[in-house]
Amino acid sequence: MGALKLTVLILAWGGIIIVLGRGFSVNRLLLAVSNATGFAAGVAVGALLLSTLQGDASFAVAKAVLSALFLLHWLVSLAALYRSTGEGTTVERFQKMSNNPLSAACCSIAVGILAGTICSFRFIPQGGEVPLLTVVIVGFSGVCLTAFFFGVEQFVPKMPVPTAEVLMAIVVSFILFASSSIPRLDLFSPLVMKVMKLIHDIVHQFFESMLIPDHLFFRPEVWNYIGLLFGNRVGLWGGMLIWFTPVLLVAAAIRLERLPSVAHIRQGAERRTLLKAHIRERRTRLVAPLIAGVMLAAAVFQSRFPAVEYWDPKPLKVAATPSGSIFIPLTGEIDLKDGKIHKFLFKERGRDARFMVLQNSAGGYTVTLDACSICKPDGYGQTEGAVICYYCKTLIPLETVGKPGGCNPVPVPFMMEKNGIAIDGAALLNLWGITVQATNRVKGAAR
Amino acid sequence: MMDVLIETRGLTRNYGEICALKPLDLRVNNGEWLSIMGHSGSGKSTLLNLLGGLDRPSDGFIRVGGEDLRVLSEDGMARYRREFVGIIFQQHHLIPYLTAVENIMMAQYFHSVPDEAEARTALERVGLGHRLKNRPGELSGGEQQRVCIARAIINSPRLLLGDEPTGNLDHGSTRVVMELLSELRAEEQFTIIMVTHNHEVAAWGDRTIYLDDGVMVREELKGD
């Protein structure tokens, strides 16, 4: 697993260096030095953030920067599309920038800082004293890799007519690929959650007054379509739309770009040959957004199937009192007030049940099975603002944990007592048995 | 001194035991019109195929427009055929379900990119401006051959090869086609090599060579 994480980061950094080296038409030594300096500085910045900021604040800062970069990528892609229509020249200056040593160096340093920061977040432990040796090793490794990839870069074909939007698309995709390997820096999962929540909120607000089965205008069939918007996949598809659109815009901009005029060439065959060369070159340039798209797809894959595991505590064995009740104290061996899911295993007379307790943002508690009523009972892990069903990879916002239906964990009735939570053991075993039986009835238990 | 477009030395083509073309030395100047005559099986079409890059020699040297055809790769040969050579066949070989203009555009497509306006102009040049949208089956033999000529010259070849292009045409149509080729050569300055059985057609050339059993037996200059 460690090797996989390392490979992701090395791949991303190598990709960035090769793209910058092939994209910028300036001195390669300048680029190499800028990249290496930026990377080393980024590692130092990451270490500084991790040592000075408390909790997840350092990750929040890095994530905000990544979000801003993604937003900028969107804007540049839109500008590129606008320019390709031939009605604007706003992006022309970007093209000049790519051939300017100062701007090339600045871009390389900025990209290096970002990459270095991401690497430091991967290797430097959070909180407390930052191990200086780790910082030095990470920084030095980055510098060595920079030198190595600049050696490899010269064997890669030169990018045809590099433009700012194309460079940005590839670099951003590599950076997002790297950041998605760290769940707390991953942008895609939160994006999916936000899209899902937004759609649910809009639909809910819009139809709130009409949520009546015998509404005058809406026949029952209409609800089938409205129901699609509440599907578990809505967030994923919406998120992917936002995720991939900038790259598609860049590809569209390249495709719509006007070909240079060949009208001055008198001979038809020669004119068409030149035109074909231009068309072929334009087609070749589409490789860049294709690479970016592949890297973004890899980021999505990592985000949904991360190399790093989610928060998934080992279930703690609990027993019932003589009266048949299971009592979970709020504090003690486990602190239930930390906002994380806590898993428990209850066994009695050859039967067992796995359940979770979670304190929600309002301060209340929810008790659920570590299973839903649809999938195989592979259980849940926790990520930022959500739990994820290990079987179907559906993200469930923490706010909805405790509510029945869909891929939500099945709620378990419980009694809130002064110092803890009381659950009826027999009822728990029955509920687990019914749920697991139901999910096993369906072949493969797939949704 | 005129520059040489085609040069062969000891050019030979064997098909198993059969020697279709015996060692042939030939030079054709740029812009020249060469007619090749001979009986069936004398090696005319074999020579034409070798010059057009449709076949490779068994032995000997063949250079066309500076390209040594013996050493060209398959891709190089395809490029040579695409950019250097235009061919007119006796049987036309037009695509029956495409219109005249589409047949021309097909040749453009394989060369580079299609350009309908240019294809129309090419057909107008061969006097078929009124038959643009007709399919080959709706055209007479002479008209079909004119479409073939338009197709052959659309990519501005330096070498135009004709394999008995008037073999299926009546006297009137033959004359129209030959006049057309003569006009086009004057305008485009390409070299023509034409295989024919017809002495009248051969007489349109600057020079005529006679092949017999794969050997060049005689050579006549215009006016001889």
Structure description:
- The complex is a heterodimer of chains A (447) and B (224).
- With 447 residues, chain A is an alpha+beta fold.
- Chain A has two domains: 2-192 and 232-304, no CATH class; 316-445, Rieske Iron-sulfur Protein (3-layer Sandwich).
- In chain A, 55% of the residues lie in helices and 11% in strands.
- In chain A, the strands form three sheets. Chain A has a four-stranded mixed β-sheet. In chain A, strands 2-10-9 form a three-stranded antiparallel β-sheet.
- In chain A, strand 6 (380-383) and strand 7 form a beta hairpin.
- The model of chain A is unreliable at 442-447 (pLDDT under 50).
- In chain B, helix 6 (171-188) links the parallel strand 7 (159-163) and strand 8.
- In chain B, the strands form two sheets. Chain B has a six-stranded mixed β-sheet with strand order 6-7-8-3-9-10. A four-stranded antiparallel β-sheet of chain B has the order 2-1-4-5, covered by helices on one side.
- Chain B is α/β, with parallel strands linked by helices and 224 residues long.
- Chain B has one domain (32-55, 73-221): 3-Layer(aba) Sandwich (Rossmann fold), CATH 3.40.50.300.
- The mean pLDDT of chain B is 91.
- In chain B, helix 3 (100-111) packs across helix 4 (116-125), helix 3 packs parallel to helix 5 and helix 4 (116-125) crosses helix 5.
- Chain A binds chain B through residues 267-273, 275-276, 279, and chain B through 83, 108, 111-113, 115, 118, 154-156.
